[in-house]
């Protein structure tokens, strides 16, 4: 029988048990990274998701090249991740509650935020306003997409402005922080929600522990950037196990709906 090894405790987990437990280790509760399609399947009601902006894709407008061209990286990643970019957006239902739903995917170039991610969040925000339904975004990212230069940094302002209009219309906005969420995403739309939920032990910070250590020449605290430390410091409102996330979101949506 096929088995998986937990990245945290190194214990072997039978594949069927691993999937049934939503890719969470049954021994140490370590929440393994999952892709956007799997996240969608365990979050939204069956057959309720209608994708928006599906024909938008990134372009190598800077002719960026490191060890290979950005265009080549995009082709490879699209095939590997079966996605056009690092986020999917659309309208859905969560236990019968209508939502504008966005889900980021770390498997697409580290969930990096480029022009397409920013544009899709704008589209989703406008849809939330037009339909007067809550906005929910699952976040995971290593930061801005360096292959798009300054344009990628501009998406911080673009996403915050777009979601600012959602808040001006008094529409609820919820983010779910998954491991890892850092850089430009953590410094923009991930942190301006009405309610910020995090999965256990998710890394949530601007610069990661390795970068901090290189900068200050000291070891950061062992729990630096963890969801638990952020909860203690008021950066996160609640920590919820993956198996309880759908019910928690549904309860919050019902509460907001009144």
Mean pLDDT: 95
Q: Looking across the biggest beta sheet, what order are the strands in?
A: 3-4-5-6-7-8-9
Highest CATH level, the class of the largest domain: Alpha Beta
Domain module count: 2
The count of β-strands is 9
Query: What share of residues are in beta strands?
Result: 15-25%
Please identify which CATH superfamily of the largest domain we are dealing with.
Answer: 2-enoyl-CoA Hydratase, Chain A, domain 1
Low-confidence stretches: none
Element order, helices and strands? EEHHEHEEHEHEHEHHEH
Span between termini: 48 Å
State Rg: 18 Å
Count of alpha/pi helices? 9
Structural class label: alpha/beta
CATH architecture of the largest domain: Alpha-Beta Complex
> What percent of the residues sit in helical stretches (DSSP H or I)?
25-40%
Principal-axes shape call: globular
Q: Please summarize the sheet with the most strands.
A: 7 strands, mixed
What is the CATH topology of the largest domain?
Answer: 2-enoyl-CoA Hydratase, Chain A, domain 1
